[in-house]
Specification:
The complex is a heterodimer of chains A (820) and B (406). Chain A has five helices and 53 strands. Chain A is mainly beta. Among the domains of chain A are: 127 residues, Carboxypeptidase-like, regulatory domain (Immunoglobulin-like, Sandwich), CATH 2.60.40.1120; 114 residues, Ferric Hydroxamate Uptake Protein, Chain A, domain 1 (Beta Complex), CATH 2.170.130.10; 35 residues, no CATH class. In chain A, a hairpin with a 3-residue loop joins strand 16 and strand 17. The chains are: A mainly beta (820), B mainly beta (406). Chain B: Pfam families: DUF4374.
């Protein structure tokens, strides 16, 4: 699943694989990628996809035959990931270029084999008792370009999209020349809104069909990112680290073994190349500098070294329009245009892995470490009238990792194990007893004080994680998966300016285990079924005064996902999950600064139903269309939400009766030949408060059944891209792209209350981004220029917090990969 | 092509089916009442809550609603004060600076005068022609900041710092419960807090009451007066002082000091006095409220004139450091009497009562907000002479958080 061309449903539009600049460039090197491992997650995906899309009929005759073979290139290297089709049967070659049809009815067939960058093989064969049942095929590399272009422009990811789950996969490789981070890329997905409080590195809140915060889980190659800390988050991970980003809206597959409740985002880094260097640097407005180095080297003996390093830096000193107050009298000067002056952000992260691949004892065994640090200045509070000039945060990450993969422990049984432990620390530093205004002037007060809450508290969460995944494929119709995710959290901290705090330091420890069991079944090419269950148990120890209170909570969840193919172009899918989410450590213990703990939180439970539809068609073969539509229904109870504590000094989590969401999204895409693509998506969600009684003691709530405030409910994206081949010189390509973001206005507070003309709200947002890319030598050198917020609109995701004004970026990227 | 069209039809039908299931909620709009009474109303919800300002011309009858009606304020946890014929709407901004919006009333409608910026403060009171604001630290060693807002200019005209670390003399920090102008001084009762760590609002000194006395406008500390007959005066964000017509100041103690999260004061809830013109507790005056009320403690009070206070009280079982009592009574501090008020809704129907209420100071009347568990709210007229409560104005769509008049 990690490679192009895998598991395409035969004959569908999506199968007419696009060949992008990058992919074309990669084609030779892919040969060297034969033995590269598959992440277990991806492996399971393969199995799911085989189950869901495999066109093989159940053998109806006893006299079936086995037929196998290999596919290799004209220079003798095996081709993994090539699609082999015999009649209605489809297989994809493995790492050694091998394929096998276990039960095939003997008769005459047309066999066809396709792989990007090679001339397709198409010939007649007869499978019968007297024929030989093993053939070696050799494919010739093409020199011409494939003419078919995928309408979606998301070739590699199409199959992820076709899972029975409500999932959208983004092909990150298409954005490697942009200056996006993961958050920016996600913002273009239907159903997703990333709400940021400012510029580079600012706090973000990703909402997926109305759920946000800890209801959404993030994964890196299937490993939960919960314990990664602030140095490695979606708002600082550059897009170049990722190969693909999968967004599960609602029902989350079992193999993402976590207690996500509102959805999940899985960042797939992949390792397409055994030997490569990918270096990029971008410079832009507001003194923004970002660079990324990705590299890998693998010896013939299987020793491998992989390195990903990235850095972000920005002053974020963009201009904002504010009501600037006089520092002494408090008088406002409305509509003052000022530059932000205390908003610098930078982070530096290195991920290094050393190990072996393709050994008898392991397909992959990697020891690694992720080192990172970040620094962030805090310019404003929850409103832009609150200005700060010294308050800042720091964090670091020291995380050893272990990855182990072995296929066919016994035939059909694959094992994947991951473990990591984060020794990183986080610190919030607010020691300046000052009050700043928007012009950078300040008043210095005497004594020990702060701009907000005096602290230098430094803490580590000592968070560890171990994931184990076992997958057993009984035969083409049945497979089983068992997963286990164990995580531990043990916060310790101290405050150097308030050492007596240590004496009050309480035990703050949780252990969580999630055991998942899944079964996958498909009868024929028409429908498939995926059943799964998860058992979550969490043990938390909360120190209270002098005794430790231990709480153990357990929940059982289950679900199913199914898809039905009316024909090659029309797929209907549906899924349901009874999902559970345990209270997070931060919610139980607080964070000592801004968040108060609540050890009485109950697990959150929700019913999730998704229904989806994908349809594609073409007119005269040059005009290609695809439409996908998803509907979603959620009903969450014991919903965990945040409110102010009794004396309104900190936030505290609580359970509420819940919210429901009934909504959906529609995406339509169009392409013309191989030089124009365009798309539009729209998301609507009707998120309704189901809390009938509120308060203590409870009273009937006037906003029961009202729409939840301060959540965007109608938004969309549009994009157009033009690409021109061989501009200036053969192998040099030029493309131009345009992106539009629209977010409908929404109220800050409950919609039904108050005189409508006097209500606070977040105005409509409309922003335009344009980009230009020129790539030389088939993608070895790339130069791109971008303009974000072209019309210099005042953009807000959160009330009063303005996002960056118009900005320009230039990015240079060099990519090369070599045969070992 | 035919099958293409067929598929398209399937697709459209499904999409139509999916998208056709929404319903709109319509609200009955109640036209805005004009009047000089201002009620601040908070729709009860856990998130996204704003306060709404509603005006009314009388508190004894009629109906108001926040549905499609009311002047939305930026957030809840707002505090309101009227002085100099102006209404001040102040945000409690979690330690951040915020905007204060001022209104007056013209033709029975609120009219915005201006915005100005202040800090989030924990105590405020009208003093002379000013509004005095004090920002109180919760961390040991910090200083409190005060600000004087000129209520004509609507600007901060002066500011300074108060040492709260050394007021108690016991190593703990002082946290003012409230401020009160008494004659030409500012009385600032405080409670002692550890200001640290896991027991920040706890104390090891739960059995004393203190009042810091400041000169105005210099805000120089003149004196600290202490009394060991009660626990601290007032509560967090609650005015524990009442000044009578003769200048005598009465103080209530709720007896809600905690140590390690547990109530630790051995002193009962009681009322003490500081005589007019003096800055000492009158050791000859002590009214044990707890005994007089059958074991209850005062949570809030409002002085209505003639020595009468309308008090909110909680039973021993209901006692909490922050909750407002739903038992209403009349205390006469001259006679040291307590009378329970009749005519309030049944206790099991009351959700909450308002703690910033209105009195014309006629010695007899107070108007108090009550929210029932069914979500409806009413203004109750409390008559101190008959010790009865009568249901008045109905407010739909929220809890009444304050009642005032311009």
């Amino acid at each position: 699943m990690e490679r192009d061309g895998n598991l395409k449903p035969w004959g569908s539009l999506f199968c007419k694989t696009a060949e992008t600049v990058v992919q074309r460039f990669y084609k030779r090197q892919l040969l060297n990628d034969i033995k590269s491992y598959m992440q277990i997650k991806q492996l399971l995906l393969v199995i799911l996809l085989i189950l869901f899309h495999n066109q093989q009929l159940v053998a109806q005759q006893n006299a079936t035959q086995k037929f196998s073979g290999t596919v290799s290139s004209d220079d003798g290297l095996p081709i993994p990931g090539a699609t082999v089709k015999i009649g209605e049967y489809i297989r994809v070659t493995d790492n050694k270029g091998e394929f096998s049809f276990d039960q095939i009815i003997p008769k005459s067939y047309t066999i066809s084999i396709v792989y990007i960058g090679f001339k397709p093989i198409r010939k007649s064969i007869t499978i019968g008792e007297k024929q030989k049942n093993r053939i070696e095929f050799v494919m010739d590399a093409t020199t011409h370009e494939l003419k078919n272009v995928d309408v979606v422009g998301r070739t590699k990811v199409t199959e992820v999209n076709r899972q029975a789950f409500n999932v959208t996969a983004l092909d990150a490789t298409k954005m490697h020349n942009s200056t996006l981070d993961i958050a920016g890329a996600l913002d273009r997905v239907a159903g997703v809104r990333v709400r940021e409080t400012g510029g580079l590195g600012s706090n973000f809140n990703l909402s997926l069909n109305g759920f946000s915060g800890n209801h959404i889980r993030f994964f890196l190659d299937g490993v939960p990112m919960d314990n990664f800390g602030s140095s490695f988050q979606i708002n600082n991970i550059p897009i170049n680290i990722a190969e693909r980003i999968e967004v599960y809206k609602g029902v989350v597959p079992m193999w993402l073994g976590a207690d996500a409740l509102g959805g999940a985002v899985n960042i797939v880094t992949g390792d397409r190349f055994r030997n490569y260097i990918d270096v990029s640097y971008s410079i832009g407005s507001f003194n923004t500098h970002r660079s990324v180095i990705n590299a890998a080297a693998t010896s013939k003996s299987g020793f491998t070294v992989q390195l990903n390093a990235f850095q972000n830096f920005s002053d974020n000193n963009y201009k904002v329009t504010v009501d600037a107050s006089d520092i002494n009298t408090g008088q406002y000067s409305p509509g003052t245009r000022v530059k932000r002056f205390h908003d610098q952000y930078h982070n530096e992260t290195v991920i290094a892995n050393v190990g072996v691949v393709d050994k008898s004892f392991a397909d992959k065994l990697l020891f690694g470490v992720t080192l990172g640090q970040n620094y962030k200045e805090i310019q404003t509070g929850a409103r832009m009238v609150s200005v700060f000039g010294q308050w800042h945060r720091r964090g670091n990450m020291i995380m050893p990792t272990l990855k182990y993969q072995k296929k066919d422990l016994i035939k059909g049984l694959d094992l994947n194990f991951n473990a990591n432990y984060n020794f990183g620390k986080e610190q919030n530093i607010d020691t300046a007893y000052r009050r700043y205004d928007w012009f950078g002037n300040y008043k210095q007060y005497e004594g020990k004080g702060s701009e907000r809450t005096r602290t230098m508290y430094k803490y580590g969460n000592n968070a560890g994680l171990a994931t184990t995944m076992l997958n057993y494929k009984l035969n083409d119709n049945h497979s089983f998966a068992l997963s286990n995710v164990f995580s531990t959290f043990d916060r310790k901290g101290s405050d150097e300016i308030n050492p007596s705090n240590n004496a009050y330091e309480q035990k703050q420890k949780t252990n969580k285990n999630i055991l998942g069991l899944g079964y996958m079944f498909n009868t024929a090419d028409h429908w498939s079924l995926n059943l799964f269950s998860k058992y979550i148990i969490q043990n938390s120890i909360v120190g209270q005064q002098n005794l430790n209170q231990t709480t153990t909570q357990s929940q059982f969840g289950y679900g199913l996902a199914t898809s039905y193919n009316f024909n090659r172009n029309l797929q209907l899918k549906a899924s349901y999950e009874k999902a559970n989410r345990m209270p997070e450590a931060t919610e139980i213990f607080g964070d000592v600064e801004n968040f108060e703990g609540n050890s009485n939180l109950k697990p959150e439970v929700s019913d999730n139903v998704n229904v989806g539809l994908m349809y594609s068609f073409s007119l005269q073969d040059v005009n290609r269309f695809s439409i996908s539509a998803n509907a979603i229904y959620r009903n969450a109870s014991n919903f965990i939400y945040y409110q102010f504590n009794q004396n309104q000094s900190k936030l505290v989590a609580g359970n509420r009766d819940g919210v429901t969401n009934f909504g959906g999204d529609i995406e339509a895409r169009y392409s013309f030949k191989d030089w124009l693509t365009a798309g539009v998506n729209v998301t609507y969600q009707n998120i309704i408060n189901q809390q009938e009684y509120e308060g203590n003691p409870p009273v009937l709530s006037p906003v029961y059944k009202d729409r939840m405030p301060n959540i965007p409910f109608l938004y969309g994206n549009g994009d157009v891209a033009f690409s021109f081949k061989n501009v200036g010189k053969k192998g040099n390509n030029l493309s131009f792209g345009y992106n539009l973001l629209y977010v409908h206005a929404f109220y800050l507070y409950w919609p039904s209350r108050g005189t409508s003309g006097d209500k606070y709200g977040i105005p409509k947002q409309l922003s335009h981004d344009v980009n230009l890319l020129y790539s030389l030598k088939n993608g070895r050198y790339n130069i791109s220029a971008e303009c974000k917020n072209l019309n210099d609109a005042l953009l807000y995701d959160n009330f009063s917090l303005q996002k960056p004004s118009r900005a320009f970026y230039l990015k240079l990227r060099y990519f090369i990969n070599k045969t070992a | 092509m035919k099958s293409t069209l067929k598929n398209a039809c399937y697709a459209m039908a499904l999409i139509a089916g999916i998208s056709s299931c929404s319903k709109d909620k319509s609200n009955d709009l109640i036209s805005e009442n004009k009047g000089n009474y201002i009620l601040t109303v908070t729709p009860v919800a856990s998130t996204g809550v704003a306060d709404y300002l509603l005006t009314a011309d009388n508190l004894e009858s009629g109906t108001l609603s926040t549905a499609g009606n009311g002047l939305e304020q930026d957030g809840t946890f707002r505090y309101y004060v009227t002085t100099n014929n102006k209404f001040f709407s102040m945000l409690y901004g979690q330690g951040n600076p915020g905007a204060v919006t001022t209104y007056n009333i013209q033709n029975g409608k609120l009219s915005k005068l201006s915005n100005f910026q202040t800090e989030t403060v924990q105590a405020f009171a009208p003093v002379n022609n000013d509004l005095l604001l004090v920002k109180i630290p919760r961390t040991y060693g910090n200083k409190a900041n005060w600000y004087q807002v000129d209520t004509d200019k609507l600007l901060i005209t002066s500011e300074g710092q108060l040492d709260v670390a050394n007021l108690t003399g016991n190593g703990e920090t002082a946290h003012f419960s409230w401020l009160k102008q008494v004659n030409n001084k500012v009385f600032a009762p405080y409670f002692s807090i550890k200001a640290c760590c896991a027991d920040g609002f706890g104390t090891n000194y739960p059995d004393s009451a203190w009042v810091a006395v400041y000169d105005y406008p210099s805000m120089k500390l003149e004196k600290i007066i202490k009394d060991n007959r009660t626990s601290f005066i007032g509560r967090y964000f609650v005015d524990g002082l009442g000044v009578l017509e003769n200048g005598d100041t009465y103080a209530f103690s709720s007896s809600v000091a905690t140590t390690g999260g547990v109530f630790s004061s051995k002193k009962p809830s009681a009322i003490t006095r500081i005589n007019a013109g003096t800055t000492e507790f009158d050791q000859n005056y002590y009214f044990n409220f707890q005994d007089a009320s059958g074991g209850m403690n005062i949570t809030n009070w409002i002085y209505i004139g003639g020595g009468n206070f309308v008090v909110n009280a909680t039973t021993a079982a209901e006692k909490g450091a922050y909750n407002t009592g739903v038992h209403i009574g009349i205390v006469n501090v001259n006679n040291k009497t307590f009378k329970a008020v009749t005519g309030m809704p049944d206790l099991d129907k009351i959700g909450s009562v308002t703690d910033h209420n209105f009195t014309p100071k006629d010695g007899r009347t107070a108007y108090m907000g009550v929210t029932l568990k069914d979500g409806s709210s009413f203004v109750y007229k409390i008559d101190a002479v008959t010790a009865t409560a009568t249901q008045g104005l109905k407010v739909e769509g929220g809890t009444i958080t304050s009642i005032s008049k311009l």
